[in-house]
Design brief:
The protein is α/β, with parallel strands linked by helices and about 325 residues long. The chain contains 11 helices and 11 strands. It starts with a strand and ends in a 14-residue tail after the last helix.
Length: about 325
């Protein structure tokens, strides 16, 4: 049943909380799922009773913050709203949407396994996301990291992947070290630039809130108060994987993503660190494995068909069945 809650703010509180041209009102509505009507200093909240009550509590928090700090930005609102989720949601750990408040405002899961993955990232200190390309493993991990940093749960986000040399040596590639390693890290940059605004990325990079580095640069570090993502983990060796897993410091979270069907040479399924840790860590408390399938692919519709075709081909090949021949071209 819909409820209306009405209260009044001072002129100064209203100016800070509403934002320029009341720009924060729509944002608060998006976070809480209620309708807000603001006229002068009067505020009316309309929604089901639990949501209206939680939104009222959110306004009280914003009022205290405005009084104490004299300002209020969307990151502050997002952090406070994380403590006041919509009705029917269990809290930040049970909310399906990811609130990044940047180039993309909200990101939603597109399959049951993606929902399970987001929930695992919020509830466990270490999560292994394993499955085929295009299932959103890295993208959702990056989005969760941005959300949690903005909520104040972590001070920084670190993204890394192995710079596996597929036929070329780094020393023979043109450019300085940064230019040489950037192609290996480009898929991570793609996710970041799709979610965040350029100016925000630049500020986070300058302030060391965001680091994107090759896995080799992790050696010797202890990463505290950080959200850490290891991408393309199938291309790590046993030693590299162990090195990464033992970097975790106080108040840190690690997400490891990979596709065990796309192991690049010179590694194999016998030497890949991601394959081995499934046996080594599957019973360790605090670690969660989430597996994706072809049904979770969210890229172009052809990608799912291509993956299925490859799997059929490999199944026939392993069973000793002759591969299908392509149809003959017609005579011109």
């Amino acid at each position: 049943m819909s409820q209306i809650k009405e209260f009044y703010l001072t002129n100064e509180e209203a100016q800070i909380i509403f934002g320029v041209s009341d720009s924060n009102i729509e944002y608060i509505e998006e976070l809480t799922g209620v309708s807000i009507f603001a006229k002068g200093n009067a505020v009316k909240i309309k929604g089901d009773e639990p949501s209206a009550e939680k939104t009222l509590n959110l306004f009280e928090k914003m009022r205290r913050h405005a009084k104490e700090h004299g300002s209020l930005n969307r990151s502050d609102i997002l952090r406070m709203a994380g403590e006041n989720p919509r009705t029917g949601e269990k809290g930040p750990a049970g909310r399906e949407s990811i609130l990044v408040d940047s180039k993309r405002k909200t990101i939603y899961p597109r399959s049951p396994n993606q929902k399970k993955y987001i929930e695992a990232v919020r509830n466990y200190d270490m999560v292994m996301g394993i499955g085929p390309a295009g299932t959103g493993k890295t993208y959702l991990a990056v989005a969760c990291g941005i959300e949690m940093v903005k909520q104040g749960k972590f001070q920084k986000m670190i993204l890394t992947r192995p710079a596996l040399e597929a036929g070329e040596k780094l020393g023979f590639l043109p450019g300085d070290l940064e230019e040489k390693i950037k192609p290996y890290l480009q898929p991570i940059y793609d996710s970041i630039y799709d979610i965040m605004r350029y100016e925000e990325i630049r500020k986070w990079t300058e302030r060391k809130i965001l680091e994107i580095i090759p896995l080799a640069y992790m050696r010797g570090r202890t990463l505290s108060n950080a959200f850490i993502i290891l991408d393309e983990a199938q291309n790590t060796t046993f030693e590299q994987m162990k090195m990464f897993l033992t970097r975790l410091g106080i108040n840190s979270k690690a997400v490891i993503t990979g596709d065990i069907t796309q192991i690049d040479l010179p590694l194999s399924s016998q030497t890949s660190g991601l394959v081995e840790i499934q046996q080594i860590l599957h019973r360790v408390a605090g670690i969660k494995f989430v597996y994706f399938s072809n049904r979770d692919v969210v890229r172009h519709s052809l990608v799912k068909k291509i993956i299925n075709a490859y799997e059929r081909h490999l199944s026939k090949k392993s069973a000793g069945v002759q591969a299908e021949q392509p149809p003959e071209k017609g005579r011109g």
